[in-house]
Design brief:
Structural class: mainly beta
Strand content: 35-45%
Number of domains: 1
Largest sheet: 7 strands, antiparallel
Bound molecules: flavin mononucleotide
CATH topology: Pnp Oxidase, Chain A
Distance between the termini: 36 Å
Number of strands: 12
Oligomer: single chain
Strand order of the largest sheet: 3-2-6-9-10-5-4
Order of helices and strands: HEEEEEHEHEEEEEE
């Protein structure tokens, strides 16, 4: 196992991203307005299910993210699983524009977390644990409520976005 202070070259990092990109994932926007803060969110593909009993999910957040403090201190957050026709939301929430929610349609979940209109599924979560993971922090969430519909999900593979 590589030591935590190992430094891989840019070439190795790119090759690893290409290898990992052969594993197709969905795309989600994780959102929070926990603690009465302004809504915040970012596009992720690191979402994964963990446990059914208790119901747990995880996602990982870059330590370099400007949104790190917000999500590390959030008691609640929501996972919005994007539908195949929501490529624009994927791009929007991966940008660094200041007011991400000004032109976005969303409704609050029962405890106030932003659920984006038109998503294929959503999960409202309470932060369960934070675990160090190299240059990311792994955020585990306990699922409090969840919804889905029949829309096809957005898929990310080989660096490309497609609909199923
Ligand atoms: C398809 C896709 C998947 C992404 N997955 C993640 C992720 O799992 N974790 C993460 O921290 N950033 C992820 N990002 C990057 C963030 O969406 C965003 O670009 C970044 O947080 C912006 O920088 P900032 O947080 O410093 O403002 C992803 C971006 C895209 C387009």
């Amino acid at each position: 196992m590589a030591s935590m202070d190992s430094v891989i070259t840019e070439h190795e990092s790119k090759k690893l991203r290409h290898t990992l990109g052969r594993f197709a994932t969905g795309v989600a926007v994780v959102t929070t307005s926990s603690g009465g803060n302004q809504p915040s969110g970012l596009t992720i593909n690191s979402f994964s299910s963990v446990s059914l009993d208790p119901p747990l999910i995880l996602w990982s957040l870059s330590l370099n993210s400007a949104r790190r403090d917000i999500f590390e201190s959030a008691e609640y957050f929501a996972i919005n699983i994007l539908a195949g026709d929501q490529l624009d939301l994927c791009q929007h929430f991966s940008s660094t524009i200041p007011d991400l929610f000004s032109d976005i349609a969303w409704q609050p979940s029962p405890n106030g977390q932003p659920i984006l209109d038109g998503v294929a599924a959503s999960l409202e979560c309470r932060t369960w644990n934070l675990v160090e993971g190299g240059d990311h922090i792994i955020i585990l969430g306990e699922v409090l409520a969840h919804h889905h519909n029949d829309k096809a999900p957005l898929i990310f593979a080989k660096g490309q976005l497609t609909s199923l």
